[in-house]
Write a structure and sequence with these properties.
Low-confidence stretches: 1-11
Order of helices and strands: HHHHH
Shape: globular
Largest sheet: none
Strand content: under 5%
Distance between the termini: 48 Å
Helix content: 55-70%
Mean pLDDT: 79
Number of strands: 0
CATH class: Mainly Alpha
Radius of gyration: 14 Å
Number of helices: 5
CATH topology: Arc Repressor Mutant, subunit A
Length: about 120
């Protein structure tokens, strides 16, 4: 059975995840948030199911798998194997808010670094 992170555990997204979120364009970020929603609602993860639900290519699902893993939505594992979902339904909205907030913070930091 997957372990579920509590909202307190999600108060800070790791720096590598912040960098990931800041690097995404708007379309990629929207696709990622939709994937998060699909995976959390189903409480199971398989790349083929993600491809079908989002109508995306195998390459896109491969990238999303890595992103979902980096964000702690799914457990690490073999790329083709089903994965346990770490985030529970009760944490979904909190997690998505934290992801969005951390993305904005990372974008602001990147803009400040470029301006310096």
């Amino acid at each position: 059975m997957p372990s579920h992170a509590s909202p307190a555990d999600m108060s800070t997204v790791p720096l590598s995840a912040q960098e990931l979120l800041a690097s995404l364009d708007e379309r990629s970020f929207d696709l990622l948030t939709h994937a998060i929603d699909v995976v959390i609602q189903s409480q199971s993860f398989a790349r083929l199911r993600l491809e079908q639900a989002l109508r995306i290519t195998a390459a896109q699902s491969h990238d999303l798998t890595a992103q979902l893993e980096a964000l702690g939505v799914i457990e690490p594992g073999h790329p083709e194997a089903p994965r346990d979902v770490i985030i529970g339904m009760h944490d979904r909205l909190m997690f998505q808010a934290v992801v969005a907030l951390n993305r904005r913070e990372a974008e602001t930091t990147t803009q400040q670094q470029l301006a310096a």
